[in-house]
Amino acid sequence: MKSFREFRLDTANHSLWRNGDRVPVAPKGFDVLAYLVEHAGRVVTQDEILEALWSETYVNPEVLRKYIQELRKTLGDRPDNPEFIETLPKRGYRFVASVIDESAAEPTDSPTSLPTEERAPEGAVEAEATSLEQESSSGKRLLWRLAVILLLVLGAAAGIGAYFRAAPNGANLPRLTNNSLAVLPFADMSPAKDQEYFSDGLAEQLINDLAKVSGLKVVGRSSAFQFRGQNEDLRDVGRKLGVANILEGSVRREGNHVRITAELTKADDGFQMWSQTYDREIKDIFAVEDEIAMAATEALRLKLLGGNGLPVVASTLRSVNPEAYQAYLQAEYFLGRGTGKEDVGKALAYIDTALKLDERYASAWALRASVQNMMAEVGLTDVTEGFRKARDDAERAIALDPTSASAYLALARTQIYHDWDWDTADTCLTKAAALEPGSAEVFRIRSYLARALGNLDPAVKLYEHDVALDPLRANSHLGLGYLLYMAGRYDEAQLALQKALDLNPQAAFAHANLGKILVAKERPQQALAEIEKEPNDWEKLTDLALVYHALGRGQDSNASLAELIAKHDTDSAYQIAQVYAYRGESGKSFEWLERAYKQRDTGLPDIKIDPLLNNLRHDPRYTELLKKMRLPI
Questions:
Q1: Which member of 11, 229, 324, 333 lies 3.0 to 4.6 Å from 357 by CB, making a disulfide possible if both were Cys?
Q2: Residues near 445 by Cβ (< 8 Å), separated by ≥ 6?
Q3: SS3 call for 366
Q4: 298 CB-near residues (< 8 Å, 6+ apart)
């Protein structure tokens, strides 16, 4: 126990007291305060705190600054006249109050239950704390309650800790611990077998809710859903996904009646840790969620936690309209099938249906923003118009629900790929990371931003986190391979790209990127054989123009480039500029880079780290373009 002024810090029980009253403070905020108090009087740097408290995972320094701000509010401190925490610009922080060590026991009049804010997940620093009573009055959701149950079970098995440790080769790989979990797609047991969208949605929402918990490793949807209908041995599932626990279940729906069965199993020995069956009417499902969840959580609380308080998971706001919610789930189902024009069109139609039924449905607006981004990125819609719609939809989702991580992620994508507003993108990603620290997509998009700003090493590390959370997603390995190629780590890049092809032999860009690596290794003949396998037309033409030039086949290079221009001048200006730059034709390269700038080509944010543009780096026009894009020089 340590005391300073009117405060007492009980590190044994993780609690803060003021004049005998317990003070609410987020768990990680308490850790920050305890570290500062432990080193009172000494300047501790930002890096020192991050290394001490987040040694095994990447954390944006902005998160630490926000915890400091929250602690100042809690202590009643002022940064301009500090009595507790002093900020020393460019140096760090210092706890300035006198600290006394004491061995006094915790006050006997301490409350038996913690204030709601203290039970809130540490990642939700920026989210407004919501009391349990407020949650009840607004309607608690079944999936959120299931998530609470799972956390109780996992928390009883082992405390939640960091889920990444550096491997000997420098890669960040998942560590198999009891706090790792995969949610497999729930089986559709309905007589007509027509409720797969509903059962998939149930599993996906559980994944999203559990990703909100800092330190809990939850495998991403793409990897977990690889095991749909395979009936594979859970030990093999756990090994392939790098998790210790598996959540699976089933949904049986007949008319308005629905039966949901869920069970949590240890992957290594098949021990069933928890199971529950719910029989309800679909039209009444929101009204009965409290009854279902409270009975189950109370039983688990008494059995596993000895009566201790429940951890709280930040709930995703869902529509109170069951029909709107079902339309939303159907949209997610079609998006999960792929990015083809037909599936995307159906998804967008279902989202619009959901919004017609409930125009204040924040999650649907966020999903619509994500779809608009994707359509603009892959050329299914006009770039400027598509990103404008994405921005509007994301901002509307945030206005309706400021705790929507998916909305912040969608807005960040727009800012990175179209607006080139790097500061706003960083702010959005910081908020998303605080709300869903275990989201693979958060790591992925943060990597995109680091890459655009020219920070390749952090970008690679962030993408390694994404791969660890979504190990069976081919595009994760593809993205990592491309980053490693740009970083000049060719052997590692080839391994990652080959893994992508192992998972999906038709993966677009994998063969082309392997070809680029072979060109860089001065093995153009092998590169040509690899590029010939590339399924994407514009990427294949781009790389053929490159490899023919490397082979000294100028006419063939010109022919491939001419075909690329004829077919893709409106959507591949950046790739055309790449070819000209690699061939040493700087003037023509800058002409196409200028066109890419005007077209808001989504490849242009790679300009700082693209090795194919090396011939342009010392040209004043290159520096001017960086300035126009507001990128660091």
A1: 324
A2: 409, 412, 413, 416, 429, 432
A3: helix
A4: none
User: Which residue do the tokens 């079609």 mark?
Assistant: 334
Residue 86 CB-density burial (10 A; 0-12 exposed, 13-18 middle, 19+ buried):
middle
Q: Which amino acid is at 534?
A: E
Tell me which residues of the chain have a pLDDT lower than 70.
Answer: 55-60, 62, 103-178, 209, 213-215, 274, 282-320, 338-339
pLDDT in tens, 129-179: 333 333 333 334 455 555 555 555 555 444 333 333 333 333 333 444 567
- Mode of pairing for the β-strands spanning 217-218 and 180-183: parallel
Q: What is the pTM of this model?
A: 0.67
CB 123 within 8 A of CB 433: yes
Angle at alpha carbon of residue 55, lines to 61 and 496, rounded to 5°: 95
φ, ψ at 334 (rounded to 5°)? -70, -35
- Helices 383-400, 405-414: inter-axial angle, 10-degree rounding: 150
Query: What are φ and ψ of residue 515, in 5° steps?
Result: -65, -45
User: How many other C-beta atoms are found inside a 10 Å radius of the C-beta of residue 598?
Assistant: 9
429 phi and psi angles, rounded to 5 deg: -70, -35
pLDDT 10s digits, 373-427: 999 988 788 889 999 999 999 999 999 999 999 999 999 999 999 999 999 999 9
Alpha-carbon span 613 to 596, nearest angstrom:
14
Contact (Cβ atoms closer than 8 angstroms) between residue 71 and residue 25: yes
Number of H helices, E strands in the chain: 27, 15
CB 83, CB 99: distance < 8 Å: no
Q: Which residues, other chains included, contact 166 with Cβ-Cβ below 8 Å and sequence gap of 6+? A: 56, 172
- What distance in Å separates the CA atoms of residue 437 and residue 280, rounded to the nearest whole number? 33
Contacts 24+ apart (CB under 8 A), 426-430: 426/60, 426/62, 429/60, 430/60, 430/62, 430/63
